[in-house]
């Protein structure tokens, strides 16, 4: 079963060159790798290494100078603007470092926003946005505007907005970059938990190796090149986890057996009592 997991994103010999006057800046230099469906993948590297450029190319926000980016079997570099926009609405979600919320809108209106483009009827999208905000722990902040919330709360709204339409892939560029350590861990757990529960693929940019340890796979980037691909958890081989969860199940079974035995014992005791 393992080997059949779909390569949801394939990056093949991708280059990105920026031209500024006479200057030519090579932000990405022949980059190739793939990401599996359901994988949590981090792009890790120092400032200026090309992480955001790579994320923006994969998310269809910028165009590559060369090579191919294939998502769900489709070469996004070849799509028309219109088709790319539809593709992004249908399959992709985004979380930004600076939250990118609409300041004049309430939390619930911000989360509803992607559903407006998907033409989800008003009542249904209100309910979906509300449910999602409750899920991220903001049930009591539905009518607050971004300026009336803390940074961590604003990013929770950002996460609710990214996940509300149940996208197959969520891209996140330094999503905890403006948050303190405790809130960072909460936000990371939230992103990972939501993605794993719905088998979604996450592509996250960070410069922090501690955050990258949340990932299944780390793509190390240096000066526009891939330095190495590090697999922390092979999602094609769930054996380790299965073995661990089997042990848990065994423990639980034993516990249950004991409970059943003790219930039977009590029933026997009662019977005995009645006989006596
Ligand atoms: N629009 C642009 N025009 C010209 N050069 C750019 C542009 N965007 C990025 N660059 C250059 O490309 C290189 C990679 O930039 P990128 O933003 O991808 O880095 P990064 O790894 O995300 O860094 P950081 O951690 O600081 O966000 C840098 O040298 C940067 O100066
Ligand atoms: Mg960046």
Can you walk me through this structure?
- The chain has eight helices and ten strands.
- By secondary structure, it is an alpha/beta fold.
- The chain folds into two domains: 2-237, Rossmann fold, CATH 3.40.50.300; 242-276.
- The protein has a six-stranded mixed beta sheet, sandwiched between helices. Strands 2-1-4-5 form a four-stranded antiparallel beta sheet, with helices on one face.
- Helix 5 (151-163) packs parallel to helix 6 (181-197).
- Mean pLDDT is 88; it is low at 259-276.
- The site of adenosine-5'-triphosphate (ATP) has 13 residues, from strand 1, strand 2 and helix 1.
Enumerate the distinct ligands: adenosine-5'-triphosphate, magnesium ion
The biggest sheet, with number of strands, parallel, antiparallel or mixed sense and barrel status, is: 6 strands, mixed
Number of strands: 10
- CATH homologous superfamily of the largest domain? P-loop containing nucleotide triphosphate hydrolases
Shape: globular
Number of domains: 2
- The poorly predicted ranges are 259-276
């Amino acid at each position: 079963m393992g080997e059949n997991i779909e390569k949801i994103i394939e990056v093949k010999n991708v280059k990105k060159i920026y031209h500024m006057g006479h200057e030519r800046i090579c932000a990405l230099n022949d980059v190739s790798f793939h990401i599996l469906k359901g994988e949590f993948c981090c792009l890790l590297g120092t400032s200026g290494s090309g992480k955001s450029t790579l994320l923006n190319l994969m998310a269809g926000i910028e165009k590559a100078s060369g090579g191919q980016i294939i998502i769900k079997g489709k070469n996004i570099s070849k799509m028309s603007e219109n088709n790319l926009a539809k593709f992004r609405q249908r399959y992709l979600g985004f979380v930004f470092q600076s939250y990118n919320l609409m300041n004049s809108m309430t939390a619930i209106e911000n989360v509803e926003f992607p559903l407006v483009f998907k033409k989800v009827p008003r009542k249904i999208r209100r309910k979906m946005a509300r449910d999602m905000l409750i899920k991220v722990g903001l049930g009591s902040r539905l009518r607050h505007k971004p300026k009336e919330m803390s940074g961590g709360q604003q990013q929770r709204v950002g996460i609710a907005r990214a996940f509300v339409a149940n996208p197959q892939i969520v891209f996140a560029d330094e999503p905890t970059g403006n948050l303190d350590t405790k809130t960072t861990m909460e936000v990371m757990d939230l992103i990972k938990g939501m993605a794993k529960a719905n088998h979604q693929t996450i592509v996250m940019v960070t410069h922090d190796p501690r955050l990258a340890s949340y990932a299944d796979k780390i793509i190390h980037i240096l000066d526009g090149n891939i330095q190495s691909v590090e697999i922390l958890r092979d999602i094609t081989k769930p054996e380790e986890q299965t073995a661990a969860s089997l042990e848990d199940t065994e423990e639980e079974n034993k516990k249950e057996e004991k409970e059943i035995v003790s219930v039977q014992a009590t029933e026997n005791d009662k019977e005995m009592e009645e006989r006596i």
